[in-house]
């Protein structure tokens, strides 16, 4: 009597055979892995080979989903834009821009490598274009075209600039800032740099100091200035 061949179910089912099948490689997985790797090592050292290694595949496997590093960067920036909350349909220009600014700051804190790249890509993706459209739609509900353009440029300059500065400071909290200031002052003559010394002792080294709080202060000044310019132009 001939033996029955094993069923196709036993050879293909990972449950019945105990075989662990690898998660299929997709474009979304490649982009997510690239973002995670950039968060860890930055964009400059990111290579196709390192990305492939992080995914547990050979470099050639990635080319089925993404053509080259430039395309990876385009997709990464587009994914970061997709993380930023957009103004709601009900929001006026000021509340909508404040909401977006705070969300952008939080996103850039997660992905500091992205800040210099956000408006540098020559082939923006769908999330990037949708983001710009939503922001302009919010601004244009209340502002004339020229003022909407001023507002968009000014708000982005502040948010992007603050994110770059925040990512660059070598401390995470007020305690770290105070320690850094104290270390600097040890080698600085008080009488030669009196204003620097005053700022350190009377502000940075005081309990409760938070460099991040400057974001709220600055954003309100920007929005107040825009609101005044809008009123004057009306």
- Percent range for helical residues? 55-70%
Can you tell me the residue ranges where pLDDT is under 50 for at least 5 consecutive residues? Answer: 1-14
What is the mean predicted local confidence, pLDDT? 88
Largest sheet: none
Rg from alpha-carbon coordinates = 25 Å
General description of the model:
Among the domains are: 55 residues, Orthogonal Bundle (Arc Repressor Mutant, subunit A); 49 residues. Helices cover 66% and strands 0% of the residues. It contains twelve helices and no strands. Helix 3 packs across helix 4, helix 7 runs antiparallel to helix 12 and helix 10 runs antiparallel to helix 11. The radius of gyration is 25 Å and the shape is flat.
């Amino acid at each position: 009597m001939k033996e029955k061949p094993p069923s196709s179910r036993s050879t293909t089912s990972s449950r019945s055979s105990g075989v662990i099948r690898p998660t299929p490689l997709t474009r979304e997985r490649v982009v997510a892995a690239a973002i995670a790797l950039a968060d860890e090592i930055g964009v400059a050292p990111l290579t196709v080979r390192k990305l492939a290694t992080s995914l547990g595949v050979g470099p050639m496997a990635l080319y089925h989903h993404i053509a080259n590093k430039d395309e990876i960067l385009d997709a990464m920036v587009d994914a970061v834009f997709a993380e930023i909350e957009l103004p709601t349909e009900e929001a006026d220009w000021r509340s909508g821009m404040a909401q977006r600014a705070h969300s952008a700051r939080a996103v850039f804190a997660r992905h500091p490598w992205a800040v210099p790249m956000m408006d540098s890509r020559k082939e923006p993706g769908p999330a990037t274009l949708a983001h710009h459209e939503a922001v302009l739609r919010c601004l244009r509900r209340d502002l004339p075209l020229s003022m909407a353009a001023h507002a968009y440029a000014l708000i982005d300059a502040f948010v992007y600039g603050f994110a770059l500065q925040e990512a660059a400071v070598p401390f995470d909290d007020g305690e770290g800032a105070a320690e850094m200031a104290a270390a600097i002052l040890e080698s600085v003559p008080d009488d030669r740099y009196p204003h620097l010394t005053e700022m350190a002792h009377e502000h940075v080294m005081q309990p409760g100091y938070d460099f991040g709080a400057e974001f709220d202060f600055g954003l309100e000044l920007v929005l107040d200035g825009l609101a005044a310019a809008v009123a004057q132009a009306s």
